[in-house]
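Subject: Protein entry, chain in single-letter code together with its fold tokens

Category: Structural biology, sequence-to-fold work with a learned token vocabulary.

Notation: Tokens come from a learned vocabulary of local backbone shapes, not from coordinates.

Start of record: The labelled sequence and token lines come straight after this line.
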Amino acid sequence: MPQAVDPPILTDPKDLSDDLTLQALVEVSADGLALLDMGGRFVMVNEAATQVLGLPAADLMGRTAPFAIAADRNRSPKRRTVAWSAPDGRRCDLEYRISPVPGAGFAVWFSDVTEARRQQERLAAITRAASSVADSGSLRATLDAVAHEIVVTANIAAVQILAVDDPADELRLLGMAGFGDAPDFIERLSACRRRGALVLFLEAIKTRRPVVVGHRKAAIMADPRWAPLHEIMDRPDWEGFVSLPMIMRGRTVGVINTYYVPGEDPCSDALAFLEAMADHAAVAVDTASLLSQTRSQAQEQERRRLSRELHDSAVQQLFSMRMQARALRAQADRAGSDPAAVCSAAEEIAQLSESALADLRRLVFELRPLDLGEQSLIDAVRAHAASLETRTGMEVRVQAASGLEPNGGIDLQEDLYRIIQEALHNVVKHARATSVDIRFATDNGDGLLIEISDNGSGPGVAPGGAAATRQDRLGLVSMRERAERWGGRLVAGPRQAGGWTVKATLPSAS
């Protein structure tokens, strides 16, 4: 009897067409697609997957995938990330989604997001650097922070930030990261320059263009002219070198030198990141220069004011005392001089000397208002307030929470005193106020708040309608600079109830 034969299985042409279409879509996909067995091992990959993972398909088959197979069993698998080390040593960040395939294993979609994540980190670093430039009162602290952000964000082993006025002159180190403790770096660099070492970053300063050298460390370490710096330059593990000029207002103010880890070449995105950081560093250098100029102007203005006050008070009184003393001597030399007239002249000299001594003490107090052995900041402010009330008739009230006393050191307290003194000067000069309140309080638990509020018309307009002078604006800049020197902030503006308020806040100052 003939054996039964199973009927042939007929394939629907439409099903065959759908399979070919799906296969084509899988192969042309720019993202990695893979099928894993129940144990999480590769059983199928597309061409993009082999490129992302850096291995041919034959080497991937049966290999355990880096993806967690405990996938969510809903219709919208979550995106996850995992690190992957390629055979060539390249480290990748893979973003993937995984979904179970009933009876077969797991389907995985993945892509290389390494550069995208780096770009996000670079943008975050730029933001942090910009915040550092705005908040820090120290240029060195600001640029050390910028150097640190570059090192932790990019594949860079070390960074130097140098300021330059003239490439032929000595350079100034403004920021560094990755080299460890190197206080004598500039001295060693100067020794290398005197030996005739080829300093490539000078070319970046000269041309205002980046200088990129792929293999720089070996050349430096083999050159005896660089010997003074060999010990420092050998500390970090680096190979490539990039130098970018810092340009502000059309002038090169410095240079950022970056030392790349071995095997890492600076791409266009990396250079764009470094250029952004160089811009922030240039802003910091320029801001420091402007603040220095403002400080010099304020100091000159203060010297002139003290000179005028000395001339108008103590000098004039001493001159009068000299004239009175000569007249008294002439009277004493005459026969039959009137004792009453002599006593009157002597009394006038005594009064002039007392007045001159008071003026000199006031000026000395303004030069050095605080003596921590004798009085505190709040006591000094109260004394100044009492003197101001006597001179102007304006009521000045000082309020301080019980036990509150800033103790950040004499320099900090003097800066706070000068802020209050300048604010009161503006009130007297411009506000047409009858009262002013000075308030000391805590801010955010451990910081310090100082608020000077008046009931006048505000400092922007002087009596008679004249606009505030340039010197007055410099006074506001000086107050802000004093607050920012200690990591604080100062704001000034009109009050809703009328008048004007100057508010200074400092972190952890009390």
Q: What stands out?
A: Residues 25-112 form a domain with the Beta-Lactamase fold (CATH 3.30.450.20). Residues 1-16, 460-471 have pLDDT under 50 and may be disordered. The chain is about 45% helix and 20% strand. The first helix runs from residue 13 to 28.
